[in-house]
Amino acid sequence: MEELGLLMQGFVVVMEPQNLLLMLVGIALGVLIGVLPGLGGANGIAILLPLTFAMPPVSAIIMLSCIYWGALFGGAITSILFNIPGEPWSVATTFDGYPMAQQGKAAEALTAAFTSSFVGAFVAIVMITFIAPVIAGFALRFGPPEFFAVMFLSFASFVGMSKGPPMKTVCAMMLGFLLAAVGMDTVTGQLRMTFGSTEMIRGFDFLVAVIGLFGISEILCSIEDGLRFKGERARIDARVVLKVWASLPKHWWLALRSSLIGCWMGITPAGATPASFMSYGVARRMAKDGASFGKGRIEGVIAPETAAHAAGTSALLPMLTLGVPGSPTAAVLLGGLIMWGLQPGPMLFVEQKDFVWGLIASMYLGNVVGLIVVLVAVPWFAAILRVPFSIIAAIILVVCAIGAFTVSNAEFDITLMLIFGVIGYVLKKLDYPLAPLVLALVLGDRTEEAFRQSLLISQGSLGVFFSNWLVSSIMALGFALLLWPVVSWVLERFNAHRSRTGPALPRGA
Amino acid sequence: MSAERGLRMGVVEVGTALAFALAGAAAIGDSLRIGTGWGSDGPKSGTFPFWIGLILIAASTATLVQAVRSRAESGLFASWAQLRLVASVLVPTAVYVGAIPFTGIYVASAALVAWFMHRLGGFGWARSAAAGLAVAVACFLLFEIWFLVQLPKGPLETWLGY
Amino acid sequence: MIYLNFRRNPGVVTRFQDRNAMPGKAGMMLKGCSRRSLLMGAGAAALAPSLSSPALAQRGWEPNRPVQFIVPAGTGGGADQMARVIQGIVSKHKLMRQPMVVVNKAGGAGAEGFLEAKGARGNPHMIVITLSNLFTTPLATGVPFNWQDLTPVAMLALDEFVLWVNAESPWKTVAEFAAAAKQERLKLGGTGSKQEDQIIGVALSKATGAQFTYVPYRGGGEVAVQLVGKHVDLTVNNPIEAVTHWRSGALRPLCVFDSQRLANTEKMTDTMAWSDIPTAKESGLDVEYLMLRGIFMPAGVQPAQLAFYEGLLEKVRETPDWRELMQQGAFNTTTMTGDTFREWLTKEEAKHKTLMQEAGFLA
User: Fold this and answer.
1) Helix (H, G, I), strand (E, B), or coil: what is residue B40?
2) Within a domain: B145
3) Which family does it belong to (chain C) (predicted)?
4) Can you give the residue range of the structural domain that contains C127?
5) Is there a contact between A50 and C92 if contact means CB atoms under 8 Å apart?
6) Best interface-test mutation with A: which of C231, C324, C326 has the largest number of A CBs within 10 A?
C-alpha cells in the first residue's frame, strides 16, 4: 500500500510540535468563526492567508484547514443554543437541536452534534484516503442535468414532511423561491424584482434571512412568555458526554447513511447545506415515528451534522483533484494553494505527493483535535444559557446585526434582518412552516440555474433529465420520495380503515 | 376562547395571506416586464418567478378563504400584554438598527446592551453602562483589529482615528 | 481558486480588438512591441509619471487608517484572488503602515462594489480592483455607473483567453474546429452572462460564421471541469483556470485571443509550452480579447494620494511573488498609469459598447 506509507510520512510531518500548535490555534479560531453568524470560514481563512506566507506550505495549509474544521464544528453551537445557525449547513441542526436545548438538554445536543460531525468527517477522510482517484472521476459526470437532479432530490426528500398546513407550506416555499430569485439572474445577466432599488441588486442573502427568521423571531416569540430563555436550567456536568456516547452506537446506521449522503453531496459538489437538509429529510422518512422529529429528537441532530461534516470534508476532494471548490471556504483555501505555488487539479496528486498526504494526515488529526477542543468546551457553551436574558438577548441582537452586516458588508442587510425577524415571528405564530421557506431560499437559485442550463444544452427538451443512467436514476429516486407521502397517505387510510390504529405519517405538502 | 383582550388571530391571518398574494402579484408584474417565455438564451428570466407568483397567489387565496371562514372561532394572536412585552424588545432593536448608519455599530451596540440591562434586567445604570461599553470594546477588538472586518463606524470612531 | 478563475465573477477590464480597432498610443504600443519590450520600453514611458512619484508620495501623503480594498466579485474568484495576493504582498513586504482590508461586494455582477466606490467620493482609503464588468455590468444592467466615476490608478496586467476543447475531440486546429462548428451547433461554456466569455463567443460566431449555444456557469474553474466532463464542447478559459487539465492531458488549447503568442516558453506538457499555442489571427480567426486587471480609486482624490497608490502598486509589481503569479497565470504583463491608461479605458469602453450593442446585450 503506497498510500499508507505516504500517509504515515504525512503524520510525521503533522506531528511536529509547531504544526500541532498551529492546529490548535486554527481549530479555536474556526470554532469562534463558526459561532459568529455571518463570519464564515472564508473570512477567517482569507484574513489569515497573508500571515501564513512566512510558513512552509504544509504548516500553513494545516492551520487554514483547521479553521475550516473548526467552523464546521462551531456552526452547530448557536443553532442549538439560540436557534441561530452560524453557518448555512447548520440550519437543519436547529430543527431538533434547539427544541432539545429548550428542554434543558443543550449539553446532550451539543455532544451529539460534535460527535456526529466527527464521525461524518472521519468517514469522508477514509474515503479520500483510499478511493480518491475513483471518486474524483465520478464528479466529472456531473453536468447541469445531474446537478438539477440532485437538487430535485434534496427538495423531494424534504417536501411532504412539513408539519404546517399544506397551503401554508406552499406559500412559505414559494416565498422562499421568490426571495432567492431577487437580484441578478445568473443565466441571462438580467436584474429581477429589484424594482429599481440599488439595495436589492445583491438579492436576499440566505444568512441574513435566516438570522432574522430563526434568531430574531425566536427572541420575539420567547419574550411573550416572560423575559427569560427556556432551558436555562440545563444540567451541566462532564458525564453528559459519556452518557450521550453510550447511547450513540445504536444510531450507527443513521450515522453511516448520513455520512454517505454527505460524501456524495460533497463530491458532486452540491455542498454541505443540501446534504444536511437531505440527510435530515431522509432520517425523518426512515424513522418509525417521523412525526416526533422537530420536537427534540437526538436523531434530528445526528443526521444533519454527520452529513454536513462529511460533505464539508469530501468537498475538499474535488477541490484538490479538479480545482473546483465545494464551498466559498474551500475556494479561499484553494486560492491559498496557488499562492504557495501549488496548482490544484489532476496533477497535484502526482507532483505534490508530500503536500497532499500531509494535508490528508492533518485532516485526521485536525478532526480529532477539533473534537477534543469542542467537547471540553461543551459545559461552557451550555452555561451561556444561564446568563440573564436581559444581557444575553442584547448581545445576541448585537452579534446578529454584526453577522448580517458582514455577510456582504451592507448596512441595509441589518434592516432586512430585523424585517425578517418580524416576518418570522408572525409566520411562526400563524403556523406557517419556516423550513420549506429556508430550503427554497438556499437552494432555489442553484436549482433554477441548473434547470435552465440543462434546457440550454438540450435546446429545450425535458428529455435531458432522463438522458443517461445517472441522471435518470437520481430523478427516479426523487420522484419516488416525492410521491411517498401520497402512497403512505393511501396506506394510512387503508390501515386506519382496518385497524383504526395506523401510525402517524407525515402529511403531504 | 381566552377572556384576555388582544390582537385577533383572524385579522393577522387575513393580513398575512394578503401580503403573500401581494408579493406574488409583484413578482408577476416584474416577470411580465422582463419576459416569461423562451428567449434567445433559454427560458427568459421571468419564467420561474412568474409561475411561482401564480402559485403563491393561488395558495394564499386558499389560505385567505379558510381564514375568513373560520374567523369567528379564531383565538388570540397575542394578548396586548404579550405584544407590549414583544414591543419592549422590538422597539429598542428598531431604534438600534436605525441608529447604526449615524452613530456606527459600536456606539449603538453599547447603548442597546446598556438599555436592555437597565430596563429589562433591572441592573443599575453604572453596571449597565459598563457592560455596554465592554461589549462594544470587545466587538471592536475582535472584528476591527483582529479579523480586519470593517463594521459601520460613526463620528466617535472617526474622532479616535479609525 | 485563483485558478478557479480569474473571473469567476465578472471580470476585469478588457481590451477587445479587431483588426484595426485600437489605434492611438496605447494600442500601437500593444500591437507593435513584444510583451517584454513593451513592459520595459514603451511601458516605461507610460509609467514615467509614476516612477518619480513613490518618493514624493512618501513625503506627501500616506494612509492614516486601514485601506479598504473593494472586490466587485465573490470570494474566491479571480479578481478576489489577485486582490488577496496584493494584500499579502503588501503585508509581507511591509509596503504600507496601515493594514489593507479586502471587502467583497459582488452583488449584481459587481454593480454593488462599483456603486459603493462611486459613493465614496474623495475617500483616499479605498481602492477597487476591476474586472471586465467595469464596462459590461453598467451596459448590460443599466446600473448608473461608469468608469469615469472613479479615478484610474494603474493597469496591473491583462488576462489572456485561450480557446480550449476536450483532448478527446477530433479537432486539432482552429480550422478543423471551425468546420465542425458550422456542421452542428456547439456548446460554449463560460463564466456569467453578457460578460467577457459570452462576448468572445459572439465574436467567434462572427469570425467563423457558426452559431454557438452559450451555457453560463458561475466560475471559470467549474467551466473547465465541465469541458473535461464533456458537458460543453468548448470554453475560452483564462490560462490559469485550465492549465492543470491541459497538463493532465484532458484539454487541448487551439489558439490564444491575443495579437502575439504567450511569452512563457517553459514546456507545460510533453510537447507544448504556452508559447506554442498559435494566436487566433495566425489561425485565421480575427478575434482578440484581453481582460484588464486594474486598480481604481474613488473620484475626487488628491494627486498626492493617487501618487501614493501608483507607487505602492509599482513596488508590488517588483516583488518576486507578483512575478510568480504572472508566470503561473500566463498573464500579459502590460502595465499603464495616468493619461495613457485613461485613453486606453476610453477606447475599451467604446469597444465594449459596440460589441455588446451588436450582440444585443445592452439593457
Assistant:
1) coil
2) yes
3) Belongs to the UPF0065 (bug) family.
4) 13-159+290-359
5) yes
6) C231
